[in-house]
Write a structure and sequence with these properties.
Blueprint (H helix, E strand, L loop, with lengths): L6 H11 L3 E7 L1 H6 L5 E2 L3 E3 L2 E8 L10 E8 L8 E7 L6 E3 L3 E2 L8 E9 H6 L8 E8 L8 E6 L25 E2 L3 E3 L2 E8 L12 E9 L5
Parallel strand pairs: 1-11
Antiparallel strand pairs: 1-10, 2-4, 3-4, 4-5, 5-9, 6-7, 6-8, 6-10, 12-14, 13-14, 14-15
Length: 226
Amino acid sequence: MSRPIPIEEMVRLFKIRHTTSHLFKIDNFSLLKKHGIEKVESSVFDLAGHKWKLSVYPNGHKNAKGTHVSMFLVNQVPVNDMPTYELLVVSQLERKWHTHGRDEFDINPEPASEGFLRFISLADLERKGFLIGDCCMFGVKFHGIEPANPGTAECFSLIEKPLNHKVTWMMSKFSSFNPGKAHQSNEFVVGTRKWRLEVHPRGYMDEKDKSFSVYLSAEGFVNNAP
């Protein structure tokens, strides 16, 4: 199964046509299941006057494990209104996407998740052209807000064997990060172990408000390797 146009062109056109949207492209999708990566999170993005993240569970969350992809929208700052949003996964064969319809994000003073445990079945993801070349494109689109610049997009890729044993975490829109909190990269695999990078923009412990602190966190082993 092949795409009618290159994936980069599909992303560009979607961003132009849907300016109140954010795309979250995931490469090497099969490696997430292979290495037991339960959740992949987008970076923080600005839409509808608020800051958000997308959380994708490639092999399902809780009662949907092994049968569906689960997907959620998470607010990063208090939400004082009720913006209308639409979670989606974009077809790579035609100009359409899969969605559960529009919904309103509830007023929340604290970070909260809204979305679907059974967003799309793993069978439909591949059979209906949403997963091609081990790549898929999830996203969110807001309705009823003024169009702005072309929609934003980012890419997550799990690299099984990093070139020269190096892993790079590019933190886009760094100014949107809460400087007083710790921020972690998505999990990545090197050797038989899972890892994350963790940063503290304003420093940690004795270096609080004096330094930019960076840590490497060992998260666990692949397939119960020793």
